[in-house]
Write a structure and sequence with these properties.
Layout (H helix, E strand, L loop, with lengths): L18 H13 L3 E7 L6 H12 L6 E7 L3 H7 L5 E5 L5 H12 L4 E4 L10 H7 L7 H19 L3 E4 L2 H11 L3 E3 L6 H15 L7 E8 L4 H5 L2 H10 L3 E7 L8 H5 L3 E4 L4 H10 L2 E4 L13 H7 L4 E4 L3 H4 L9 E2 L5 H9 L5 H15 L2 H16 L12
Parallel strand pairs: 1-2, 1-3, 3-4, 4-5, 5-6, 7-8, 7-10, 8-9, 10-11, 11-12
Helix pairs in contact: 3-4, 8-12, 10-15
């Protein structure tokens, strides 16, 4: 484990801009002769909004074809006034409302393509049981059942309004296609300039330091809803931590641990850090020796993106993940990370701990891969390709079904 200094002051929510400034950005896009996409989102947050709105808006600043600005649920009436200059509406994981329905109708009257962007299988009531089981949600409780049924139904209803879909990978795209019988395009999750800048600083600091004990395994999905994911590997971790007293588990967030691990908690071998912003998260990932991503392998988790791989790669930290669709299609086992099925976690983590693998080379391979694909020109071109696919339809049906 490497102890890195606290980061200098930084803006943890750079996307929080007043409406007047976002309107100015919209009209600037129009003046520059670029096509204007309006992204709709419920309200700014640090998860889906950052990946599916902020990062895309920022990337398109480098595009000569497209620009994008985000507006929120309480601003739908303002968006209706922008329709004469709008070339595409992107509904990002929004819920159905009467105002949204009205806005979409107005857009379609003008032959403006309306696309639904989603990064998870939260649009399908038929998958509610899988969703609940994966996240340890007890639908026997009336409140929980009403809450999740209503939320997913409203997202599904909003998604049904669209001409097509943006998804983070083909597995999720095909689920959308099966549900709605409409085309999809891929826009992967990505890294933004702030992450790139701070990760470069952290990487340079790491190069000047020497790894020291304790050896730290980082788990950055630390919330009680991930308990079933953690249960996939806890026995392997338990054996590993008991065998090697100088290994610790660093958890960011909160997690409920099985009874067998309580002694490790009491001994300080499992450490907690409260949830942090996305910049501080990069520092915490940089400090650990390995980043673990255990997941229940089912039709819900296979829709998830590989973001935990590329964010760790930026700060030279190895990722070990369950081979769900996104990870097995982006991690080459032993080359830029590791893939582990049940029963393989102990052996893999032990080999990293005992330095039986070339950690430096694996980290270098992963970073090279990420910098080539998840930012910069390549990412801009992916957005442009996806946007152009639907813009050509002008709100009508397109023949192709995927990218």
């Amino acid at each position: 484990m490497i102890r890195l200094p606290q980061l200098d002051s930084y803006e943890s929510t750079p996307w929080e801009l007043p409406q007047a400034q976002r309107l100015k950005q919209f009209y600037q896009i129009v003046r520059e002769g670029k096509k204007a996409a309006v992204l709709l989102y419920r309200e700014a947050d640090t998860s889906t909004f950052r990946y599916r709105c902020y990062n895309i808006m920022q990337a398109l600043c480098e595009s000569e074809q497209w620009g994008a600005v985000c507006f929120f649920e309480q601003e739908y009436h303002t968006v209706i006034e922008l329709l004469p200059q709008t070339d595409m509406i992107v509904m990002t994981r929004v819920k159905w409302t009467t105002t949204l329905n009205w806005l979409v109708e107005k857009a379609k009257q003008r032959m403006i393509p309306v696309v639904f962007d989603v990064d998870d299988r939260v649009f399908d009531l038929d998958a509610l049981n899988t969703f609940a089981n994966t996240l340890a949600i007890d639908l026997e409780h009336e409140y929980a059942c009403d809450f999740w049924f209503a939320n997913i139904a409203r997202i599904q209803q909003a998604a049904a309004l669209a001409d097509g879909y943006f998804s983070t990978n083909d597995y999720l795209g095909k689920k959308l296609q099966e549900k709605f019988n409409k085309p999809y395009q891929i826009i992967p999750n990505s890294v933004n300039r702030e992450q790139l800048a701070v990760s470069e600083i952290l990487s340079k600091q790491k190069q000047q330091l020497v790894n020291a004990r304790p050896f730290a395994i980082g788990y950055f999905s630390g919330s009680p809803t991930h308990i079933n994911d953690f249960l996939e590997i806890y026995k392997d971790l338990l054996v590993l931590l008991n065998k090697y007293p100088d290994i610790i588990l660093e958890v960011v967030g909160f997690m409920e641990f099985p009874q067998e691990m309580q002694s490790l908690l009491q001994a300080g071998r499992i450490r907690f850090t409260p949830l942090v912003d996305f910049i501080e998260l990069q520092r915490l990932i940089a400090q650990v020796d390995v980043n673990i991503v255990p997941l229940v392998n089912n039709s819900f988790t296979n829709c998830k993106s590989e973001l935990k791989y590329f964010e760790a790669a930026l700060v030279d930290t190895i990722t070990v993940a369950t081979p769900i669709y996104s990870y097995r299609n982006n991690i080459k086992n032993g080359e830029n990370g590791f893939l582990c099925r049940p029963g393989q976690w102990f052996e893999t983590l032990e080999s990293i701990y005992l330095e039986r693998v070339n950690r430096t080379q694996i980290c270098a391979n992963a970073k090279k891969d990420v910098l080539q694909r998840y930012c910069g020109k390549a990412f801009v071109e992916q957005i442009e390709h996806a946007y152009n696919f639907f813009e050509k339809s002008k709100g009508g049906c397109v023949n192709e079904t995927s990218c």
